[in-house]
Amino acid sequence: MSSSSTNTTLNIPVLLASLGILYLFSKLWRAHLEMAKFDGIPAVGPSGLLSSFISGMRYVKNARELIKEGYEKYHGRAFKISIPNSGWMVIATGPELVNDIRKASDEYLSFDEALNEFLQIDYTLGKPHREHLYHVNVVRNAVTRNLSARYSDVRDEIIAAFSEEIPVTDDWTSINAYDTILRIVCRTSNRLFVGLPLCRDPDWIDLNIQFTVRVNSIAAIINLFPDILKPIVGNLLSPTGTATRRAHRHIGHIIQDRLDKQDQYGRDWEDKPNDLVSWLLDENPGGKYRTAEDIAMRLLNTNMAAIHTTFFLLSWFSDTLILHNDICHKFKSPSPASSTTWQSNRTQSSKLSERKSSPSLKNMDGAKFLWATSAKWIVFMKEVTRMVGVGVLVSGRKVMKDFTFSDGTRLPAGSTVCIPVWAMHHDERHYEDPNEFKPFRFSDMRDIEENGNIKHQMITPNSDYFLFGTGRHACPGRFFAVNELKTLLAHTLLTYDVKLEGFSKEVPEPTLFTSAIIPNQKAKVLFRKRIMMD
Ligand code: HEM
């Protein structure tokens, strides 16, 4: 009896170890078979089973350099790169392949499935957000359509947010740029989304800022686990319950009231607010989606798409302007005439001398804002996004059915393909002196090229510029984002003098994490009341 029990206790560890080894081998074998499907596509770095795993680790901090290396080596073709815990990812380069991605249908290359996998939507946002994406149509249509009707509210919120967050003082005041700018962007965007007074509620602002961070970090954790364990980990970590309850406390009664009014009076009723809540209700497919919880979650989801991206860019714009005082000076002595009298096909030198001779606008409060946001040279923003951007890659698509590029390269179903936006924006085939920051690059291109005025707008996707992605999934919020950014920037420069603390000569180093380019979280900016120049 005692000898048989000893045998059992001895056998259990042996059994567990054998199962472990078996699991490891089956995993390695499957990984080998999976990797073999990509054999025809060249790799950046080593492509062996273990060596590619190590190279995947390098991707975490060096994605930008690795992708640039592959871009230069294999330009015009597709190459593969090892991603931690996800095997190979394919990067398409050159106009033909990028155009293949732009044209491909969702049946073959799916934006939704790529996002679904990246964000683990079932667990982080909830299944309804995978099943029905009506909020995307709302951003595409109603948000954009209502921009001019709601512009004065957004501008009003920008003025209020800045005066509370960064009081106008005669002495320099040091501000933690990251947190402050993020709150201002969140509040401003929410003036359009949910209106007053909720857009100013500190807990609503905190919820929306934190929700994005939580969703991304929880998704990253879930993605570390094998598929079989994802439901367990996903349900354990899911932020949806807490977030919906917290959002519901703020907005549940407002949504319920609108639902009741819609039941009573139909789609249009007197004094119906013109905001995202109403637009979501107008587009709502009904049934299980017509609940206060579902709509509250769509609000969080839209905030997630809107806030951090816009904030990243505003940070880069501010840093760049601070370091390029010459551009700031255009704001300090602006001329309404200069924006309207600029003609096409002028020479660079005549434009520059015109900029220098701009008369003061200091007594023209109403006009100066309009001038500041409509001035042609504000397209310097586009040059900043070209230089820095928000990510190394864009337009991730999941391959749903085997896909063949126009050069014959085959992508196996189940793989993911992306466009290397950062490398493209730094390619001399697309831009002269690509590593040089030329604030008026796009302004000049707009003046000189035929149809340049349309082609080089920041919102226009074209074959050289991919900040907002490409094809039918190109960012539908870009019209709002660009208008908001121009106004945020114009207000900053018309109200404050700004300088960087500690970083006098260079833009504070961004944090690079996998394919994200994140503004420096420690950067401090000094603000004081703007001193007018004559
Ligand atoms: C400057 C800030 C922004 C940047 C850089 C940006 C960038 C992007 C990019 C790269 C995509 C994916 C495109 C693709 O895969 O080809 C995207 C999608 C999206 N963006 Fe933006 N975005 C910004 C602001 C906004 C704002 C303010 C909103 C909402 C008001 C928004 C809503 C969306 C939505 C809903 C999608 C998904 C589109 C779809 O499912 O087809 N974005 N954005």
Automatic annotation (TrEMBL):
This is Cytochrome P450. It comes from Tetrapyrgos nigripes. The keyword Membrane applies. The chain crosses the membrane at residues 12-29. Coiled coil: none annotated. Heme binds at residue 475. Residues 333-360 are annotated as: Disordered. The keyword Mitochondrion does not apply. Its cofactor is heme. Pfam families: p450 (PF00067). One of its GO terms (molecular function) is oxidoreductase activity, acting on paired donors, with incorporation or reduction of molecular oxygen. InterPro entries: Cyt_P450, Cyt_P450_CS, Cyt_P450_E_grp-IV, Cyt_P450_sf.
